[in-house]
Amino acid sequence: MGIAERKAREKQIRSDQILESAYQVFQQVGYTAATMDQIAERAELAKGTLYIYFKSKEEVYFSLLINGMDILINLLEEAEASGKMRENPLQETARTLFLYYTEYTHYFRIFMVMRQEDMQAKLTPNLSAEINMRATSILNLLVCQVERMIPEDASAEINPWHVANLLWGAFTGITQLALTKEQLQARATQNDDLLCLCFDLIGRGLLSTGSELKKPDKRLQSAKGKRNV
Questions:
Q1: Domain 1-54 falls in which CATH fold?
Q2: Domain spanning 57-228 has what CATH number?
Q3: What is the mean pLDDT of each run of 10 residues along the chain (229 residues)?
Q4: How many helices (H) and strands (E) does the chain have?
Q5: Considering the entire predicted model, what is its pTM?
Q6: What 3-state DSSP class applies to 185?
């Protein structure tokens, strides 16, 4: 290993060390309350060393967000490679997404912070490009499963990208509801069942679309009849 390669490897190890420490601090006190001092202390580094690798707490946060998105992409790709997706695409997708939520809840909490407007304003162009690239990858993986569910005679009528966004919105909405109930100590629901039900209803809608397109719209016929009276 050359000197340049060794230095790059050491830099990556130190960066990973900082991110792991930041993850632990965010998990313990939350993003808002966390400070760079706490992260430096957990990493057993001088605060100045942190700023060599990350310019701000927000940059640390966005880098963790990218790590979390990579984990989800890997989970979806592994589920696809296992062949389970081919049997029941949307149900397996729902189970994989919920696995991510349950096994990596704190990464999911980090993701939810991103929805705050002030956080988005702090994104650098490079980090924004990295996050958008991964978000597109996640949606494309969902699109593949949606396309399996769309009947051939309805393929021209349904935009898989729109459905993939609908699935992602359902996932983030249901899991955000779970986190909110947890914070309020409200009665919990079976969120995995709720997510599977939602995806199942969307899947049934896709499967029935082909046959529905062949049927005349009774509401439209009724409206035409009234105009002709």
A1: Arc Repressor Mutant, subunit A (1.10.10)
A2: 1.10.357.10
A3: 77 92 91 93 93 92 93 95 89 94 86 74 87 95 93 84 94 86 74 90 84 48 48
A4: 12, 0
A5: 0.82
A6: coil
